[in-house]
Amino acid sequence: MSRLRIILWSLVAVIALVAGALWIVGDRLVAPQGGVRTSGVANIGGPFTLTTHDGKKLSSADLAGRPFAVFFGFTHCPDVCPTTLFEMSENLKALGPDGDKLTVLFISVDPERDTRELMATYLESFDPRIIGLTGTQEEIDALVKAYRATYQRVPTEGDGYTVNHTASVYLMDRQGHFAGTLDYHEQQDTQMRKLRRLVEG
Q1: What's the rounded Cα separation, in Å, for the pair 76 and 113?
Q2: How far is CA 142 from CA 37, 65, 151, 156, in A?
Q3: What is the mean pLDDT of the chain?
Q4: Does the structure show a pLDDT above 70 at 101?
Q5: What is the pLDDT, as a whole number, of residue 159?
Q6: How far, in Å, CA of 82 to CA of 85, rounded?
Q7: Greatest CA separation found in the chain?
Q8: Phi, psi of 127 (to 5 degrees)
Q9: How many CB atoms are closer than 10 A to CB 153?
Q10: pLDDT at 140 over 80
Q11: What angle do CA 119, 87, 65 make, to 5 degrees?
Q12: How far apart are CA 7 and CA 37, in angstroms?
């Protein structure tokens, strides 16, 4: 076998190994950070039961058969959270009647301050179909881990603090499987294409 042929076969093997170590998440190619479903879909998401901003219990089982979007944030957030919730409100309106088919969840990563009453007041500024969720610190931490999101409390002047957190919106299909993300400040037409695919199944 010629040296050139050996080099070509070696390149093919390397490409195959690299392809096996990557997968598509949304519109981005990223390296896996954990387990992968047998279908090749990232193993993101999991069961939960939390308290809504109007005092009811909502579980992942209640969402069976419905696509949903998950955003982790907090009510004292100065920029990312209100911007994202405003964009999701506009997206729901732009979907028209299909907007009623999508459940949008705003999950607090600051349960110490984000009582359901505070979240209810905060969400009055956005589309009424957006559901605020809070719970114990342990419940929130478990869900953040399940979605491979991150957050970190950062001290500010005095005894205050802010929270750095993942800015993406997670899209989940009717089976509760990860279907991609909406990235912060992504163009609305790009977000709408993803959301229409999601609600159309």
Answers
A1: 9
A2: 19, 23, 12, 26
A3: 84
A4: yes
A5: 85
A6: 5
A7: 74
A8: -55, 130
A9: 14
A10: yes
A11: 75
A12: 34
| Contact by Cβ (8 Å): 129, 93 | no
Please give the single-letter amino acid code of residue 97: P
How far apart CA 84 and CA 167 sit, in angstroms, is 8
Which DSSP state fits 67?
-
Render pLDDT for 153-189 as a digit per residue (tens, 0 to 9).
999 988 899 999 999 999 999 999 999 999 988 999 9
Average the pLDDT over each of 5-9, 18-22, 140-144 and give the range with the smallest value. 18-22
Side chain identity, residue 25: V
Instruction: Name the pTM for this structure.
Output: 0.79
DSSP-assigned letters across all residues of 110-160: -TTT--HHHHHHHHTTS-TTEEEEE--HHHHHHHHHHTT--EEEEE-STT-
CA distance 144 to 33: 14
Phi, psi dihedrals of residue 76, rounded to the nearest 5°: -90, 5
> CA angle, corner 106, sides to 117 and 167, nearest 5?
130
Separation of alpha carbons 96 and 94, rounded Å: 5
Closest CA relative to residue 170, chosen from 69, 50, 85, 46: 69
Give the model's pLDDT for residue 201.
84
Q: Which residues contact 133 (CB under 8 A, 6 or more apart)?
A: 50, 51, 52, 53, 58, 105, 106, 107, 108
Paired tokens of 62: 């209640």
Average pLDDT over residues 69-97: 97
Residue bearing tokens 């970190």: 152
